[in-house]
Amino acid sequence: MEIFPKYISLLDDVLEPFYEEHWPCEQRHPRTRARCVNVRARHTKGHQTANGKVFAVGEYVSGFTLDEYCKEFLDNVYCCLVKFLDQLERELRVSTQEGTSEQLVASLIHRNMVLAGFFRCVDPPEDRGLAEPLTSHSACFCCLLGTGQHPLPCGHLLCTECVMTFGRLDSATSAVRMDECPIGGDACCLLMQFPTQIRMKPRASGARTLSLDG
C-alpha cells in the first residue's frame, strides 16, 4: 500500500511522547493495590497515588516498551488503513452514481468508523455527555488537521473544512446547517440543541476592521 510509508514518521512522532508523557507507571501500592499515577517523564518523586501520597521510592516500572510495541502499533495502523481503503472503494462504487465526492465519502467513513468508536471509549453510555477533554481551541478534534474555529451547541469546535464537509451550505445566506456533531454524534444531539446554523464569511469578503472614533 503506497500511502502507508507517509504515515510512518508521524506514527513514530506520536508513539514516543505517548510512552514518555501519558503511560503511567505500573507499580502498585502493596496494600491498597492502587496504581502509581506518575508517568516516565515525571517520575522524580517515586511511586505516587492519585491523592498525591508517595508510597514508595523507585524507578519507573512498565511492561510496555517502545521497542516491543512499535511493530505491533505499525501493523495495527496498517490493517486499519487497509480496512478503510477497502470500505472507501466499496462505497465509491455505489456513491459515484449519485455524484457524491470521494472526500465526502471518506469523511463519512472517518466519522462512522473512527470517531464513533473513539467517542464510545472515552464517553461510555453511563457517563454520556461528560467528554469535556474533547474540546480544544487549538485543534479540530474531528480531523486533527485544522484549527477549531466554529463552536457547536455541545461545546465541540470544528475547523471550517469540517463544517463544510459535514454540514449543508445555504448559498443564499452563507450559513451552514449542522444536523449533528461529527465528534459526539447522537450523544451530543440528545443533550444539546441540534440542528444548528453556523454563519460563514462569504468567499469574496476580505478582512474587516471595526474602528471606533471617540
Beta-strand segment tally = 7
Helical residues, percent: 25-40%
User: Alpha-carbon distance between the termini?
Assistant: 64 Å
Q: How many alpha or pi helices?
A: 5
Shape label: extended
Walk across the major sheet and give the strand order: 5-6-7
Structural class: mainly alpha
Low confidence ranges:
none
Order of helices and strands: HEEHHEEHEEHE
Produce the secondary structure layout.
Elements: H1 5-21, E1 47-48, E2 54-56, H2 66-95, H3 102-122, E3 150-151, E4 157-158, H4 160-166, E5 168-170, E6 175-178, H5 186-191, E7 196-199
Description:
There is one protein chain. By secondary structure, the chain is mostly helical. Among the domains are: 81-127, no CATH class; 132-199, no CATH class. Helix content is 38%, strand content 9%. The chain has helices at 5-21, 66-95, 102-122, 160-166, 186-191, and strands spanning 47-48, 54-56, 150-151, 157-158, 168-170, 175-178, 196-199. The strands form 3 sheets. A 3-stranded antiparallel beta sheet has the order 5-6-7, with helices on one face.
